[in-house]
Each structure stands twice: as structure tokens, then as C-alpha cells.
Design a protein that fits this description.
The complex is a heterotrimer of chains A (238), B (205) and C (221).
Chain A: H1 9-41, H2 55-82, H3 85-117, H4 125-144, H5 150-181, H6 196-228, H7 233-236
Chain B: E1 4-13, E2 16-26, E3 31-35, H1 42-50, E4 57-62, E5 65-66, H2 74-77, E6 78-81, H3 93-103, H4 110-119, H5 135-148, E7 153-157, H6 165-180, E8 184-188, E9 199-202
Parallel strand pairs in B: 3-8, 3-9, 6-7, 7-8
Antiparallel strand pairs in B: 1-2, 1-4, 4-5
Helix pairs in contact in B: 3-5, 4-5
Chain C: H1 3-17, H2 19-40, H3 44-66, H4 68-77, H5 79-84, H6 90-104, H7 106-119, H8 124-151, H9 158-185, H10 191-220
Classes of the chains: A mainly alpha (238), B alpha/beta (205), C mainly alpha (221).
Chain lengths: 238, 205, 221
């Protein structure tokens, strides 16, 4: 299959438009199922009570935030290697969604931290890594928009994303090490081992976030394509 | 002797397509003028030929082979003079010249450099920090470099900018000497230069 | 003459002609480090605890201050494109510039750190580990900073954007550098952290110059 066929903006625009509604619907269905499972079906945790249920949003958000950075780095790599316009546009479309999930992870983490450790922000390894990840997303978005020529912004930001993906494990590892040095709290997700319904709920919510991300990214990619290609014939024909 | 050729070059800046399907060839002893109004893409085209800008389509050939692939010898054989003359304010004219030549791998003695600076009228000013020189005098440091650099290819962007009438005469003389020795040049300019170009590529029409 | 030697000698010569800029960075480092006790109180135990971390953060900020001058003046006056078009491989003169930058910022900071250590009442062995960490870590700051500086050439708001890009990347260096000194101060071995810094230096020395070259090519495009 000729993948470069889909790398043409008009083709991708149409394809994205057709697929988008399906993903939104899937996301809605999966979140409904996941929330039901997590808020109704899963049992109360022995040590943390009802409050632990926030992990059904916190953990999927954290996973998505890191996964989306990886996706962004992949699109960046593709756009630099093959010099396609669409690769960079996709990376730009991913960034805000990734930043959103990082922010959600931080917020829900703080709300979970308050009852659990008595403080909103506890400087544990995962939270600090999430915070640095948020700065990496902001840096990408800021750099991409810092130039008059959007293509220059594309390329610079793509290179930054690649530098970031190499540094992300290093940063994560260094923060873990820092945490052990300063006897920080290692957080247990739940007191006992995870009940199977909790795991199901988390997986459902993760898939829901994934579907939502795809839908949101396709939507954003379409509007980026329209804006960038506004002077071409096919856009004016729309 | 090698020829410099451009085939079907196209370039865009932001959303605007500057030029498309530009082709020309320069043989040793010839020079090509790139003309056009301000903003028509002369500088971008020249930078494409030099290898600073990647064109959207088309290619530049040196000696029949791709000029900017690895293994190409264009970089060793070409001198590029852009809008900004590449002169450091804190260094003297003599030091700037020496650095520029060393960067290009041109071995040159003090005497030859002093003579070159004399040729371009900077002999009394060669030990002044470049920030004390006028724009025209800084341009002349670039002329001294061209005088001493044996590279056969000249890629020049508005070489007469900031030069007075005497500077223009100096440059014309140097260009003639360069062409007579079998060199070639691609010059973006909106001045009329002597000797007349062998070919003119007009942009922005 | 190789590209490295050309760039290294030239940048050192330029820094020598402009000593004010270099001294400014070092003075900034010393001033900021001296501000912390004024803000936190001069209790010896507190100062000894926060000393390594504070000195490291000051080193990071000083590095950030000095970074723009590495590439932006060459970019503006046209020297950068001349260097990009030279027959020398780009990585060689980029590394030369980074080495020169470190010689006039990171190295003086490292040499000055014992004096600041005195201000904070650090023990001699802690100071030694701190200096060793700075010696290994400041080149990494110069390397990473060079790549970020190249990415932001000609950007709107380049100065603050540079900080946003570089500081997250500096975090591991800060953690391991300050962590080594703190480990030493609490009686643990600083070896692990220092080895990691050393490994980081080797990795950065190999991996960052190509990234910086790619960023410079993007900037000149």
C-alpha cells in the first residue's frame, strides 16, 4: 500500500473527516463503560476509601500524556525524514491534546494527593516527571509558533520533539533517582493488589482516552490543514 | 573544467511561492545575473544554489553531479557572499580576513593579505576594529577575500551594496579577472554590472 | 587547521576582546548565590544543606544567560552561513564553539565554586565533589544549551523561549550534580551520581553536536 497517498493533505482531510465521528462515538461509549465500571462496580479500597477512584482518570491520563509525546516524536521524525508537510501538521495536532492529558494527570494527581498524603503536591517521582513533560509540551508548542514561516516552526519543533523523546527517559530516571535520594514517597496505587474490576475500569478508560485523542487530533489536524493550505485550489473549492 | 547548473528549482517562503521551474547553466568564464524586484526571490534562489536552502523541487548540479549530496566538491570550490558580510565587530579587518580565509582552507601569508587589503583601500585601516569601519569598508574586506580566494565559483548577493563608485570599479575589475581565469559567477544584483552578463535570469515576472 | 581549532581559537579571541560579557556571567553567578542566605536566613545547618543545590541552580541560570551569545551574533552578522558553507564538517566547528563557550563560562564557574562553598559552609570533601560534578556537568549544559540556542535563532521571544526549552533538559544534570554533593555531605558515596554525569557527558558530546548542526541548518534555511 502506498502510504504516501495518505500523506497528501486533501486525501487525508477527507479520510479524517469520515473517520472522526466513529472515534468520538467509540470514546463516548468506552468512557461510559469505564466510568460505570470504576465508579459503580469496583469495590471500595481498604486503605484509601472512595477517594482512590480518581485513579481511573489519573492513570489513563498519565499514560496517554506519555504515549502522545511518543506519537508526536514519531510524526516529527517522519516529517523530518520525508520532508512531508502533513507529518509536521499531525505532530502539531497531537501536542495540545498531549498537554491537556498531562495537565489532567497533574490536577487529578493533586486531588488524589490531598486526602492521601495531606498535601496537594508531594514531589513524588511520577508527578515531577509529569510536570517536566508539561514543560516539554509547552516548549514544543511555543517553538512551533515562534516563527513567521510556519515551515521553519515545523522543522524546529520536530527536531525539538526528537531531542525531547531521547531526554524523556533520562529525565524520568533522574527524577526517580532523586526521589530515592531524598526518601520521597513512593505511591502505591491502591492499598492491596488490584481488584480485577479496577483493572478493567482502568483499561476501559485508557482506551476511551485513546479514542478521544484520535478523534480530537483528527479534528485539529483538519483545521490546521485548512489554515495552512488555504491558498491552494482544493481548499478554495471546498 | 566544471559547470554549475540549476534545473527546475522551485521555492516557497511561508505560504508564498517565490519562483518555480528556474533553470540555468554557467560554464567556466561565464557569469549569470539574477535580476528582479525586491522580494522576488533572488536571495533565496542564490541560497538554494549555495546549498543553504533546500528547494521544494529541482536540483543543482556541479560537474554533472548533485551539488549538495555528500561527496560533492562544490563547497570547497565556491565562495558565497550574502547580505550580511560575515565580519565580526570585535576583530580587526586583518583578523577578519585571516579568519575568513582560514575557514575556507586558503593558506595565505601576511604579506599577501596586507597587499589585498591595500588593493581594496583598507591598508591604513587594517588594524582597526571592524566596528569602527563604515558599511562600505566592511564590504571591502569581503572584496579582499575574493581577491585572495582561488575558488572558481562565486555566488554573490548584491555585491555592490554599500560600495561607492570606486568600490564598484574595483569589483568589476575583480570580476573580469576572475572570469578570465576560468571562474564562473552567479550574481544577484539590481545594478548594471560591467562586464555584461552572459545570461540573465529574471525573477518575479 | 581543523574546524574545531578554527572555531575554538576564534571564539576565545572574541571573548577576550569582550571580557565584560564573560565577567558579567560569573558575577551574576556569585550575586545570585549570595542572595539565597539573605532570603533563607544564615543558619549554618540550613545553608550547608541547601548549598550544593543552590550553587547548581545558579550555575544553570548563569549558563542560560550566556547561551544566546554563542550563536546569535554569528547568525546576525552572517558568519554562521559562512561557517555552514565551509569545507570543514559542521560538527567540528560547532563542537569548537561549544568548547570555547564552556571555557569562558562553565570552567570559571567550576573554579569559583569553592569560594561559594565557603559562603555556605560546605565541608571540604563536599566542595570537592561539588566541583567535580560541575566540571562534568557544565559541559553538558553548554552542549544542550547550544542545541536549544540553535533552535531558537531568529525566533520571536528567543531569550525566554530558550529558557523554556533548555531548563527541562538541564534537570537531570542538576539532579545528579547536586545529588552527588548531597550524597557526599550525608556520608553516602557520590560515585554513582558522578559516573552518571560522566556517562552523560560522553553521550551528550557524541549525540548533541549532530542535533545542533541539524538545528543550525534549519535556522539557515
Amino acid at each position: 500500500m502506498n502510504w504516501f497517498y495518505f500523506a497528501s493533505p486533501p486525501t487525508f482531510y477527507r479520510l479524517a473527516g469520515t473517520l472522526m465521528p466513529f472515534f468520538f462515538v467509540l470514546a463516548a461509549l468506552l468512557s461510559a463503560a469505564g466510568l460505570y465500571e470504576g465508579l459503580w462496580v469496583a469495590p471500595t479500597d481498604a486503605q484509601q476509601g472512595e477517594v482512590y477512584r480518581v485513579i481511573f482518570i489519573h492513570v489513563p491520563a498519565a499514560w496517554m500524556s506519555m504515549f502522545l509525546y511518543f506519537v508526536m516524536a514519531c510524526y516529527s521524525g517522519l516529517s523530518l525524514t520525508f520532508n512531508t508537510r502533513l507529518g509536521a501538521m499531525m505532530a502539531r495536532a497531537v501536542a495540545p491534546t498531549g498537554a491537556l492529558f498531562t495537565f489532567i494527570a497533574l490536577w487529578t494527581g493533586a486531588f488524589w494527593g490531598r486526602p492521601t498524603w495531606g498535601t496537594y503536591w508531594a514531589w513524588d517521582a511520577r508527578m515531577v516527571s509529569e510536570l517536566v513533560l508539561l514543560f516539554l509540551y509547552f516548549g514544543y508548542i511555543a517553538l512551533a509558533n515562534a516563527f513567521e514561516d510556519p515551515r521553519r516552526g515545523d522543522r524546529a519543533a520536530s527536531l525539538l520533539a526528537l531531542v525531547g523523546i531521547v531526554n524523556l527517559p533520562i529525565i524520568y530516571f533522574s527524577v526517580q533517582w532523586w526521589n530515592t535520594l531524598h526518601q520521597g514517597s513512593t505511591v502505591k496505587l491502591t492499598g492491596s493488589s488490584m481488584h480485577v474490576t479496577m483493572l478493567t475500569a482502568m483499561l476501559l478508560m485508557t482506551f476511551a482516552s485513546w479514542m478521544y485523542s484520535i478523534a480530537a487530533i483528527l479534528w485539529r489536524a483538519r483545521s490546521i490543514i485548512l489554515e495552512r493550505e488555504r491558498r491552494t485550489r482544493w481548499v478554495r473549492a471546498l | 573544467m566544471s559547470a554549475l547548473e540549476a534545473r527546475g528549482l522551485a521555492c516557497a517562503r511561508g505560504d508564498v511561492r517565490l519562483f518555480r521551474d528556474v533553470s540555468f547553466a554557467a560554464l567556466p568564464g561565464e557569469w549569470i545575473a539574477l535580476t528582479g524586484a525586491n522580494g522576488s526571490g533572488k536571495t533565496t534562489l542564490l541560497r538554494c544554489v549555495a546549498g543553504l536552502v533546500r528547494p521544494e523541487s529541482g536540483e543543482v548540479l556541479w560537474d554533472g553531479r548533485p551539488a549538495h549530496a555528500s561527496g560533492s566538491t562544490l563547497h570547497e570550490n565556491a565562495v558565497f557572499v550574502g547580505h550580511a558580510p560575515g565580519v565580526k565587530d570585535d576583530l580587526t579587518a586583518a583578523e577578519n580576513l585571516r579568519d575568513a580565509l582560514a575557514l575556507r582552507g586558503v593558506a595565505c601569508g601576511e604579506a599577501a593579505m596586507d597587499e589585498a587589503l591595500g588593493q581594496v583601500g583598507l591598508s591604513t585601516r587594517r588594524r582597526l576594529a571592524a566596528r569602527r569601519l563604515s558599511a562600505g569598508q566592511r564590504r571591502r574586506i569581503g572584496l579582499a577575500r575574493l581577491w585572495l580566494d582561488p575558488a572558481p565559483v562565486w555566488l554573490l548577493d548584491e555585491p555592490l551594496a554599500a560600495l561607492d563608485a570606486e568600490g564598484e570599479r574595483l569589483f568589476s575589475g575583480m570580476l573580469e579577472r576572475h572570469l578570465a581565469r576560468g571562474g564562473l559567477a552567479v550574481v544577484a544584483t539590481h545594478h548594471a554590472l560591467a562586464p555584461a552578463p552572459d545570461r540573465e535570469v529574471r525573477l518575479g515576472s | 587547521m581543523t574546524g574545531f581549532r578554527w572555531a575554538f581559537a576564534r571564539d576565545l579571541r572574541l571573548a577576550w576582546r569582550h571580557p565584560g560579557e564573560t565577567f558579567l556571567v560569573i558575577v551574576f553567578f556569585a550575586i545570585v548565590a549570595s542572595l539565597f542566605p539573605l532570603g533563607v536566613g544564615a543558619e549554618p545547618q540550613v545553608l550547608a544543606r541547601i548549598g550544593p543545590g543552590v550553587i547548581w541552580v545558579c550555575a544553570l541560570l548563569a549558563a542560560l544567560l550566556s547561551l544566546p551569545s554563542m550563536l546569535s551574533s554569528d547568525y546576525i552578522d552572517g558568519s554562521l552561513e559562512q561557517m555552514a558553507l565551509s569545507p570543514h564538517p559542521m560538527a567540528s566547528w560547532v563542537t569548537g564553539k561549544i568548547a570555547a563557550h564552556w571555557s569562558v563560562t562553565g570552567l570559571p564557574l567550576t573554579l569559583l565554586s569553592p569560594l561559594l562553598g565557603l559562603e555556605y559552609g560546605l565541608e571540604a570533601d563536599t566542595q570537592a565533589v561539588l566541583a567535580a560534578g560541575l566540571l562534568l556537568g557544565t559541559p553538558v549544559l553548554s552542549l544542550l544549551g547550544a542545541a536549544c540556542s540553535a533552535l531558537t535563532l531568529g525566533a520571536r521571544g528567543a531569550g525566554t523561549l530558550l529558557a523554556l526549552l533548555a531548563l527541562p533538559l538541564f534537570v537531570p544534570v542538576l539532579i545528579f550534580g547536586a545529588g552527588a554533593a548531597q550524597a557526599q555531605a550525608s556520608g553516602l558515596s557520590p560515585q554513582a551520581a558522578l559516573s552518571l554525569l560522566g556517562a552523560g557527558l560522553i553521550f551528550a558530546g557524541l549525540a548533541v553536536p549532530p542535533a545542533a548542526c541539524a538545528a543550525i541548518r534549519i535556522a539557515l534555511d
